[in-house]
Amino acid sequence: MARRIPEVVIKRLPVYLRVLNDLVRKDVEIISSAELAHHTGFSSEQIRKDLAYFGAFGTRGVGYNTRTLSEKIKGILGLDREVPVVLVGAGNLGTALARYSMNKHEDVRIVAVFDNDWDKIGKKIEDVEIKPMEDLEEVIKETGAKMAIITVPAVAAQEVAEKLEKAGIESILNFSPAKLSVGEGVYLQNIDLTIELQSLAFYTSNNEG
Amino acid sequence: MARRIPEVVIKRLPVYLRVLNDLVRKDVEIISSAELAHHTGFSSEQIRKDLAYFGAFGTRGVGYNTRTLSEKIKGILGLDREVPVVLVGAGNLGTALARYSMNKHEDVRIVAVFDNDWDKIGKKIEDVEIKPMEDLEEVIKETGAKMAIITVPAVAAQEVAEKLEKAGIESILNFSPAKLSVGEGVYLQNIDLTIELQSLAFYTSNNEG
DNA sequence: AATTGTGAAACACTTCACAGCC
DNA sequence: GGCTGTGAAGTGTTTCACAATT
């Protein structure tokens, strides 16, 4: 314990959480790591090791209490309260993500959308008004958002990242195909759809390999 | 050479490709692994090792020819010809991805969109008509698509995956939050936005750690 | 002189195997 | 008896360091 936790471990926690919440809903009270493995596709050892980073949540000979473990994981991830997120870039993808997030009533929720296009500003995405970039810092302070999503074109992304950092954002999900540089204190996760599609092509019979 | 190539390596190739194409456009003819490292954020050794999986493309003491290396990587990934992709699920996200793909004239291109909602069928996304699921196999054969994107709700995803596999699709990019099972011959890549958002929350000051 | 290509070392993550506990 | 929690072994990836080459 108390050692640095691998990113891959953090990425598996939401998967466990999803299965656990489903089980809680079905009134299943206890689950073994072997059953969790079956539901998630990860190995039971891996699941036990992952959880062991944070504590000993199970009962030997028995398994894990679904509700307790779910609460624990929510606490670890910080999902035990509403998590407000701001989104910058109300283009096709940004709008789709905003709608997606607002329609599922989940813990992590897009609470504000920004753009610099005055044709979009003032319009609404599911009750949330698109605001100008000038309002960014103020709204981030008001909402207490610590997370942000960037869905602006590559050329604008670095500038947006800097504004977000300045406004106190601590983690960024970047969908723009730009290599962003942010300070030490900011966690940056990139999802590059072009990379995903192009790398997918490798696993097809239409290549040299 | 001739050994299995790690997935992480394949994911880095499109990044090299992007930088190389940019350099070719700027008439830069030669680049060293150190400069590539600077542009991509990966280490120069890693870049050299990655490329070494596929051959010796550089010149010692000199570097890599940008155009040649770009062509090589395109060949490795199978991007040396147009790569047709079909998309299933014309919801918010699916529509956004389709528009995004169709507006950039890149090698990988969404050429057909399917849905089972008759209110959507017949409507167009940037000149491409939304087609019913019944046409899936036929259109996949006609277009020669080997890749597919799934943007349907979780409950429908497994069924869609099976139809795609049956129609000869070899790799799938799945955006639905479902654990899909596909045959040996099909490569499956998952992008789960809920997981991304929830794991992002961990790297924020609002959690237990 | 400069930079690639690559074994060897280091590091990171996963799987094994079993002691510990209920 | 059964399942967790965890050191030890195994596997995979990255970094180091340098010989090979232009």
Describe this structure as you would to a colleague.
Two copies of one chain form a homodimer. Chain A has 209 residues and is α/β, with parallel strands linked by helices. Chain A has two domains: 7-77, Winged helix-like DNA-binding domain superfamily/Winged helix DNA-binding domain (Arc Repressor Mutant, subunit A, Orthogonal Bundle), CATH 1.10.10; 83-196, Rossmann fold, CATH 3.40.50.720. Chain A is 44% helix and 18% strand. Chain A is built from eight helices and nine strands. Chain A has helices at residues 7-25, 33-40, 44-52, 66-77, 92-103, 136-143, 154-166, 193-202; strands at residues 30-31, 64-65, 83-88, 108-115, 124-125, 128-132, 147-150, 171-174, 187-190. In chain A, the strands form two sheets. Chain A has a seven-stranded mixed β-sheet with strand order 5-6-4-3-7-8-9, sandwiched between helices. The first copy, chain A, has a two-stranded antiparallel ribbon with strand order 1-2. In chain A, β5 (124-125) and β6 (128-132) form a beta hairpin. In chain A, α1 (7-25) packs antiparallel against α4 and α2 (33-40) packs across α3 (44-52). The N and C termini of chain A lie far apart (43 Å). The interface between A and B is large, with 59 and 60 residues. The structure holds a DNA duplex (22 and 22 nucleotides).
